Each structure stands twice: as C-alpha cells, then as structure tokens.
Amino acid sequence: MKRKFRAGILGATGAVGQKFVELLEGHPWFEITALAASERSAGKPYREAVNWIGAGEIPAGIAAMTVESATPDLECDFVFSGLDAAVAGDLEERFARAGYPVLSNARNHRMDPVTPLLIPEVNPDHTALIERQAWGDGFIVTNPNCSTVGLVCALRPLVDAFGVEAVQVTTFQALSGAGYPGVSALDIVGNVTPYIGGEEEKMASEPRKLLGALAPEGIVPLDVAISAQCNRVPVLEGHLECVSVKLRRPASPEDARRAFLDFRNPLADRSLPTAPERFLEVFDDPRFPQPRRHLDLGGGMTVSIGRIRPCEVLDLKFVVLVHNTIRGAAGGAVLNAELLVSQGYLKHRKQTLTV
Amino acid sequence: MKRKFRAGILGATGAVGQKFVELLEGHPWFEITALAASERSAGKPYREAVNWIGAGEIPAGIAAMTVESATPDLECDFVFSGLDAAVAGDLEERFARAGYPVLSNARNHRMDPVTPLLIPEVNPDHTALIERQAWGDGFIVTNPNCSTVGLVCALRPLVDAFGVEAVQVTTFQALSGAGYPGVSALDIVGNVTPYIGGEEEKMASEPRKLLGALAPEGIVPLDVAISAQCNRVPVLEGHLECVSVKLRRPASPEDARRAFLDFRNPLADRSLPTAPERFLEVFDDPRFPQPRRHLDLGGGMTVSIGRIRPCEVLDLKFVVLVHNTIRGAAGGAVLNAELLVSQGYLKHRKQTLTV
Amino acid sequence: MKRKFRAGILGATGAVGQKFVELLEGHPWFEITALAASERSAGKPYREAVNWIGAGEIPAGIAAMTVESATPDLECDFVFSGLDAAVAGDLEERFARAGYPVLSNARNHRMDPVTPLLIPEVNPDHTALIERQAWGDGFIVTNPNCSTVGLVCALRPLVDAFGVEAVQVTTFQALSGAGYPGVSALDIVGNVTPYIGGEEEKMASEPRKLLGALAPEGIVPLDVAISAQCNRVPVLEGHLECVSVKLRRPASPEDARRAFLDFRNPLADRSLPTAPERFLEVFDDPRFPQPRRHLDLGGGMTVSIGRIRPCEVLDLKFVVLVHNTIRGAAGGAVLNAELLVSQGYLKHRKQTLTV
Amino acid sequence: MKRKFRAGILGATGAVGQKFVELLEGHPWFEITALAASERSAGKPYREAVNWIGAGEIPAGIAAMTVESATPDLECDFVFSGLDAAVAGDLEERFARAGYPVLSNARNHRMDPVTPLLIPEVNPDHTALIERQAWGDGFIVTNPNCSTVGLVCALRPLVDAFGVEAVQVTTFQALSGAGYPGVSALDIVGNVTPYIGGEEEKMASEPRKLLGALAPEGIVPLDVAISAQCNRVPVLEGHLECVSVKLRRPASPEDARRAFLDFRNPLADRSLPTAPERFLEVFDDPRFPQPRRHLDLGGGMTVSIGRIRPCEVLDLKFVVLVHNTIRGAAGGAVLNAELLVSQGYLKHRKQTLTV
Known about the structure:
The structure is a homotetramer. Chain A is α/β, with parallel strands linked by helices. Chain A has two domains: 5-142 and 331-342, NAD(P)-binding Rossmann-like Domain (Rossmann fold), CATH 3.40.50.720; 146-323, Dihydrodipicolinate Reductase, domain 2, CATH 3.30.360.10. The first copy, chain A, has ten helices and 14 strands. Chain A has helices at 15-24, 46-49, 60-63, 85-97, 146-162, 185-188, 199-210, 253-262, 291-294, 326-342, and strands at 5-10, 30-37, 67-69, 78-81, 101-104, 139-142, 164-173, 213-215, 218-220, 225-232, 239-247, 280-282, 303-310, 316-322. In chain A, helix 5 (146-162) packs parallel to helix 7 and helix 5 packs across helix 8 (253-262). The longest helix of chain A is centred in the middle third of the chain and has 17 residues, at 146-162. The radius of gyration of chain A is 20 Å and the shape is globular. Chain A binds chain D through residues 54-56, 189-190, 236, 292-297, and chain D through 54-56, 189-190, 236, 292-297.
C-alpha cells in the first residue's frame, strides 16, 4: 500500500463510530482524515465532542481532530457510516450521490436490491451489485445486523455442504449491541429481557439475502425458513446463539464439524489486514465458546462454534459466538472496505485542497 | 386441619433444604419436626450447621433445632428430600422402606416406572402409581427438574387443546439452580455458559412422563420430540425459556393464549395452601415476563408466559418463566405433599415417644 | 384511624413516585386519591402513563386512576413529592402556599432554615420548625438524601452516647439511587464508578442539620466534620457504607454495639405503621450486612450495622446498610407523614366537591 | 539478553500460576522450563492438569509440557511461586535452601525481617536484604498483597514529597483476587460483601515495611497509621480503592497531583521489559479511573489515580485503581525478577543435564 486511503467516519461520536476509531488506529491501508457527527458536535475537538466509552484512551492523533458536519464535502476517499438508522437512510444516499463510497453499518439500505449486504467470507461476489447502483462514482455497501453475522458465518459451510432448509436460533445478546446509553442498568442487572425490537425480523430476512445467489436479475435469496428468538443478557460484549438446523442432505455432527473446519475461505489468498487467521473456530470442550473467554479470538473477527450435536426435532444443533461490535459491526465494515480495495472498487479520490 | 402433619427434611442444610425451611415457616398444614443432614452436621444446632444463604434470617423456631443423622427414625409423618443425587437414591429408599412417605426433589427416582413424577396442576392422577409401590406404608413421589417444570406447565394446556408433536426449548437458567457454592463468580459474571451437565437429557425425557397417560401397565409417555439447549446466565433466581412448538392441530397465537387462560386447573376446588391463585400468567407486553420482575408472582408458584407468536419453522413460539427454587424445587414438593393430603395418601403416623 | 388521609403524589410516574404507590398499597392511614405528573402524562390512566419498573404489577386500584397535572388543586389532604429537583423547588412551594402539607423527597428545600429535614427516629422534635413556615396551612417537610439516611441513623446513638467529632464514609451505592433509566448498563456491569455528582456534598452537610439541636434561632448544626467518598456499584437496591468515626469520649467496639442496641427509639410508643420493629439491626457475623441479604429487614425500614471494630486512624469503624428507595426515600417520607399525623401536624382538609 | 533465564513456576495450575504462564509468553528475558504443581497434577500434560480460566487459549508451547512435582530439582534458574499460603511457607524455603531464587506471590514470608517485600518503583533498594538471607545461593523475594500494591504505589510520591502520617482506605476488590473457584456467584452477583478474611491486617502492616527505610538493623518501618476496610464487589479484575491521607506537611490537591506526575521513577533508566511507560496515571475527569476502562493501562502495570481533592477529616482524598492479578500479583513478581536481573541478583544456574 503506497498511499493510505483516507477514511471519513459518519456518526463518529456514537458507539459504532468510536469502534471505527479504535479499529482504524494503526491500520495499514486506511487512515482517518475526517470525523463527522451531528451539528451539536461539529466544530469541537473530537475529545470534547465524544463521551469515550471504550477501554483506555482516545488514540492520540484522533483526539485533537475537529469534528465536522455530516455533509458530503469531507476530505476522504470513502466513508464508514456508524449513523443511527433515524438519519442514515438519507445521509448515506447524499454521500453516495456526491461520489463517496459508503460502508454502512446502518440497517436502512441493507435490503435494497442493488445494495450488497456483505460478509467477505460469505458472499464476496455480491459486490458486483455495486455496478448496478445509480450513484455515479459513489456507492453503498452494508454489513449485516450483529446477530445475523454470527449465524450466517456458521451457516455458510453447512449450506455449501448439505443445504439448509430451516433454522431455529435463540440469541443471548450483549449490552453493547444496544449502543450507548442503550439499556438501563436497572433493566438488566441480574435479569434477562426476552425482546429486542426489530431484531427477530432482521435475523429472519438478512440471512436469506446474504446466502443468496447473484443472478442477472439481482440476488436470489436462499430458500430457508428462519425463526429467531432474541434476548438481551447482562454481558458486555459478545452475542451467543443457540442454533438448530434442518439440513437438505443428512449429516452427522462430525460431518458438520468437518464442514466448518474444511470451509474454503474465499479470503484465503487476499491478505486482508483485518481478516482473522481462522474465520471459524470449533470447540470440542462442551463448555465453550463463552462470551467472556472467546470474544477476542482473531482480534474479535473469528466466529466461534461449539457443542455440535444431534437435534431431536430438526437435524443438528450447536452454539455460535460472535463479537458483536467488531465482527458484527465496525470490524465487519472495515473488512468489507478491505475486500473492496482488493477487488478494485475502492479508489483514491482526487485530493481536494481545502486551504 | 386439626393437627398439623409433622415434616422431616433430609438434606436440611443444603440449598434446597434451606428453601424447604423457608417455605414451611408458618405453613398451615405442615410443621418441621426433624432436620436431617450429613454426619458432619448431626448433633449441632441448625443455626451452626447451616451456612444460611437466603435473604433475612433463619426462622426463629428452627434455628435452635438439633440436626439429626439421615437415618429412618425421624420423628415425623413424612419427609421432604433435598438430598444430593449422590446419596438420594439409596437413602430415600431406606426411608420409604421404613414406612415414610418421601417427597423428593432429587433426580434419582424420577423415571422409575412406579414413582409419580408429579406437578399437581399437570398430572394429579399419576399419584395412583403410589399403590403399585412395594414399600408398605412408605412411598416415594418426586418433582421434576427445575427447567422441566416451567416447560411442562406451559405445554399442558397446548397438549390438551391442540396436541404437541415437537418442542424446541432454549433455557436461560439462574445461578440458584446449581446449588451452593455452585457456580464460581469468575465463570459467570458478565458471561453465559452454554452447557449444564445432564440438563438437556432431563428436559428431553421428563416431560414425556409428566404429560403421559396413566394406564394399567403404568405411564404411557406422551409421544413428543423435545430438543433442549440449556445455558447458565448471571441471574440469581428464575429460569427463562424460549420455546417453539409443533402442534398436531393448527392454532393461532390467540388460540394458544386462550388455551393458557382457559386451562381448567384441576386444583381449582382443592384449596391447597401453596397453590397460586393463578397457575399461569399470560403477558401481552412483549418485554415480559422477566426473571427479576415476575419471579415472585403467586409466591413463586405461578408460571409466566409471554410473547406468544407464530414460529417460522414450527408452529408457535413463546417465552416461559419459572421460579426455579420455589415452583421448580421446594415449593413444587410442598404442593405435591398438599395434593397427597387432599387425596388421602399422606396420613398422620403414630407418634413415637423418643423419651 | 376512622377516616384515612387522602394522599396525592407529585411525580407519580417517576421511580420515587412508583415507590410511593407501592408502599401506600394497603396503608392503614393513607390512601392515594390523586396522582400528578408532567403535562405529557396528564389525562392518561396511570397504567398507560407509567413505565412500571417495580416487581410484580401496578396495584389494581391505582392502575386505572387518571393522572393529573401537578397544579395545586388536587383532591387530597397532603402530597408526597417524588419530583425531580429540576422542578421540585418551585412546584412544592406552590403546593405549600395553596395550603397543602408537602412531604418531599427532593433535595431543593432540605437545607432551608425553617424546613424540617426529618428522620423520625433521629430528630422528631425538628417538626416544630413547621410553625415557623410562612405558608399558612401548608408546609414543607423533607427527608434526607438516601445515603445520608443510613449514616445518620447509625450516628444518632453514637452522638448521644459518646459525641462524634469526625466521620469518614465511603459508599457503595445501588443503581436504583440514580432513578430510571439512570445509569447505563454499559457503564456499570462488572464495574465501579467512583463518582456521583453532588452526593458527597449532601453527605457532608445534611447530617449536621439532622443531628443538630432545635433552638430558638433555628437548628444549630452538630459540630462534626464529615468526609464522604461516593461510588456506584452494580447492585440493584441497598446502599452499603464503610464508616469510621472519631468520638468525643472513648468507647470500645462493645460500647458502640451496646449504644446501638440500647438506643431509646423515640417512636417506641407511637405505633406508626411504617416504623420497623427494630430501628437498628446489629450483626456479629463479620460477613454481614450485605445488600442482597439484609435489604428488606423491617420491610426495608431497618438500618443494619455490622463489623464494629477499632479504627487505626480515628476511633471506631463499622459497616452500615440502608434500603435506599424505602428507608432512604419513599418509605422515609411515609414514616415522616405518620409522625406528623401522630404529632397533630397533618390534618384532614375540607373535602372539596369536584362534582 | 544473550541467553534467556529459565523460570520454573510453582503452583502452575492455580489462578496465579496461570497468570505467570500468560505473562511470560514471549517474554524477552525469561522462558518457562518447568511447571510444578500438586501430586494430583504431576505427570500430566499442562493442558490436562489445568482448568484454564483465562481468556483465549493456553500458549501453545506450554500446553504440552509435563507438570512436575513441586520438589526442588526443577530444571530452571529460579522459580516464581503462585503457591497457596497453606503450603507456600515450607515449600518456598525448601527451594531457597536448595539454591533457587524464589519470587513469591504468597503471603507467608512477606513480613520476615530479611525477606524483601518488593515493588521495584517503590523500594528497589530493599533487595539488599537478600544478602542477609541464610539460604546460600537461594533466596526469597516477595511481592505484596494485591490491594496493598495499589495503595503503596500511590503513597510513595506523597511520602517523599510531604510525609504521610495516617491513611484511611476502603477497597472495592475484584473477584479474581479470591482465586478460582473463589467466590460463589450466589454470594456476589448484585451484591457486595463487606469482609475479606485477613485482608485488612495485610493492608495495615505491609505498607509500613514497603515504605520503610533500609538500615543496618533491617527495614525500619514507616511510621504511619493505616486503617483499611476491605470489600468484595462483582467486578472481574481491578481493585479500586478510596483513600484519605493525613500529611506531615501541608499540600493542596494540585501539589499532590504534581507529586504524582513528577515522581522520579527509580526504574526510569533500567529498561525492564515489564515496567510500564507510565508508572502512575493521573485522571482529571472525576468519573475516572474505573476498573473496566482503565484496568489494562501499561499492560496492567500502570497504577491509576483520580479524584484528588481535599478531605474534610484528614488532608486529601483520592481514588486508586490497580490491576490485581497483573501489577498486584504475577506481573509484580515478574517485574521483581527483572529488577533482580538488572541488579545482578538473578544469575544463570548451572545447566543440569537431566538425560
């Protein structure tokens, strides 16, 4: 990488925006050149505009940067969007229309027919949809909902090897998935809440697109029934998911284990900086994976699988763990950007002099 | 009740034993006349033998009682057993053989063909099995595993109204279910553990017996496939369960809701002191039930149900909450004893003078 | 009590307001006849206006009541105020001026020279200040900050018996003290925050007034130096406080223990319904008191003390536990109202007919 | 470092032993050549003998090593001891007598007159005591109790600059300080326990030795009165401490802040691999430091200080945070070993051939 790509961050002061700042610190390909947030923050140094919720401190080079308004005149080659869904839909389109590639974590455009909903190891070919977008040089690429990501990463090898007809999934979702301030401590300490608004719908629909086939007429969704039951638990980071699947061709737990381990990772030869050494980790110890212990495998980008065993009702059941704010949000978007670089979709924009 | 029944407690110093002590305080039908525990505790006043883990203090009348050895010469009409499974099998049989009715919370005898596995609202007629036991005046009646109880209470009305062919259940189980000291805080604070040894097997088998039919040859188990995924969460009390069911006859969520609300409680006319006013509580607010908020409904004896909705894979899905140490353990055994009194199985034994 | 007093609740939908509703359910002297809240809630049934955060359900009789605006034309004999400090100052004065006795939990008027800051067991004579208030029939009486209450209840016997010159206190404060939604779960799960805005100042000043002497010129504050360090911990209810005191006359831990146990409770002969049987509970087991275990002693109105031992720097140190939303807030205000009834300050107002 | 020192670990399967394994992974000066534990573990591969409680996985090179008995014939230049106090006293002496330098985390020898109780930044000269030990080539050096460490690191600059006459400290101690399985989850979730056996005594005595002066007759303890109140909170790692100090010479909060920031770190020129870039971190934001956010500063070796302000009873008060299992235990012992290398006390032992 001769010259780094200049990244802007939309929604830079929010929970996801902060995670982008953290993950891009020292990134070999990308450097943050613009931080944009709401009018309330614009004009302030980042350190004053942000209520930094991460461990440790704001990266030194970023703390003093001035936050800008989220208008499409940022000095950067592309933008990561950690915008809230309430404003993301419109703002992201304005940036795309102005010629910026937009790597979005928001849900607004995920199900648009010409917008790739992307997990590089799962459906890297879906980026071809970019060519059907009508924004000129700009485009929008999205990453899925955090709980969808873990599920789909685990399903991909099973779909390839045996076909999947139906999926039951019950989630144990971490607090960080609700943003900040998010969940009141009074609602969740020593408690479980069996409802997360809109989450079950996303888990029922997004995987079908992610696992779908690219066709001349667009993405043909995978024909799979998905039933999700989504719950919040008093865990800081890491979504755990109990999954049962009905397969199209019979497979034993050991067959599934081999499918996970033998999965041909399409990123294998691409040397993307954020891609983990192991896409999937499979545990044989029945106590694992656990959020607190295995969250950070592969820098938070590895998806962990355990307890593969027969299901008395469908065919197989197992447990999945995903780092919801890294693989499931900001880290996923960064990996998407890296894939787009390697595929040639992301280019250096002309340097405007802002004198 | 002219004269109270004299209850002994086996395993009186353990977590379940303590719950028996708590629940029997002020009971209108039963009074504790014997506390038995291991040799280490025998001979000590209860207050010294026990590491009291409950809220508040040991009931005054019990604190000074002397703990006895768990040998079948206790001064009482029947015994509650909170014994550990490691010793319960043999000891409970010795008490039954010596003529004591044994109301056991241990798993050892639950699946014995002639031992009732009993939830009074679910299968009160199964107590007829007592007559097939070969212990003379003594007998053994068991209550189910704590996570089984919640599930089965919710299934009973559905089985009656529509038939149930298959059940998927994922549990969020509280710490108290593991006894004391049980789970290390380092293993569970801010964490979930996706494995509880032996639990999934119990949930797959016990409901079939509980929902089975009493026949001349014994209990004919219900023909239902059950797949359980059991998890421990950092909640003190209250097992939450996400359930999906495949029915034998079609039913809408509203049909199921009506089945829960209209369930004819077989205890309705029996005035058992521990029976809750409402056996099942149905919530329409999608955020409910929650362990911390709804745990104590009906004194911990009500089972709560919420989020009844269609399942994309089976037919219906919903959430169940059960107080695992009251309805799911000691309270369940006390209600069983009350049913046995009302059915005439529990009688006053001759008062032996221990001079 | 021939006829119950009619109580209004200001701020009825807030966390403290809800606690008033809970505690007044079935109260032998008081009945809720008016619920007042912000304009947003006015006109709605209480069940719709409130986000009920307590365990269980809204008392049936209250759920259907219509919430009113907080204007001083409520149909009641007096009001409890659970108003937020942002609006309490002005609103409470308007009610007092209109002739209503106001029993306030807000901090605004606590340090006013003619406003009693009241804990019935500690300074029941301070209610004489009411006569110096210039509101006509109305008046304002306040209860202290939740963390102050526990400290002062423990100090009262020591001040009486030995004199207290200086106090060091470090608090472990529960989440409920911050109201709802209050603390973000992301800030406190598995964490401690060593700062609660304004809290240390209140603990340094309020006890001096509470323990002060009623004199012709007003309350002469107790001459005691208080240093507080206030911290939030992931506990739902119950403030624990580690206290060290420098006494004016020497005393051993056993002397202090006796002072706590022998304290002559000024409420002893008054039969106030909310007064606990034991004002102070003293534990000898060094592990106690603990929030989760001893929170509810005396219905949440007992203050618990433990670990009385010599201090290497001052004279004695010990641990105090107080239920912050009952004794430390709503329950304290209810007990204050009961004292005012027994002292004759609280009277039936003329019944206005609202036709 | 031409040739790495060979380190043995006593108590290698325990919580502290595991932390040694974690911290020595990739250490530039030390390599683990021997793992010793109880007879139960001896002979097994480490991966089988240990119940690994850390995040991630056992370092690959260590997992296959065979655990040995803790007898003084280990193939190593020195040993780290994470032994339990029940056995550490005797075993460590046997190793010292056999010629091994012993770097111990156990409490048994801490207060021995000729045993250095060592924090390299605080009292590096105390290692001279080694020369007075009578074990031949072997010797014992200890690190302090985890809660002592944070306190003493913060006191050192104040003692140097102003003198310290008295200290009040209240601790909020993490679960990991109790080892594994340690605290039962039922005792601590949503709770605080105001008692940790033996802890207050250690905090009252160890700092006096650590801050004492090396004299011909041994360490002359600092003349300071210390009163500690020790509490367990539901935090995984990181002891927070609320401290008040009485100084010998007046100082403002700003004076103290400068004393912390200007402290001349005696390790400044030694380039010890485990020494953090910043020994002390001072926060101006009143909400900080917090266990979860600032635990890992300086790789867990930085001690954080915040909320420096006047104390109404003594002179100044502030908050201290220390990583209890790194700076406060295994990391402290590793840094001690590094200091001993740089001072020439730690040497390569002759390589015995075990063939």
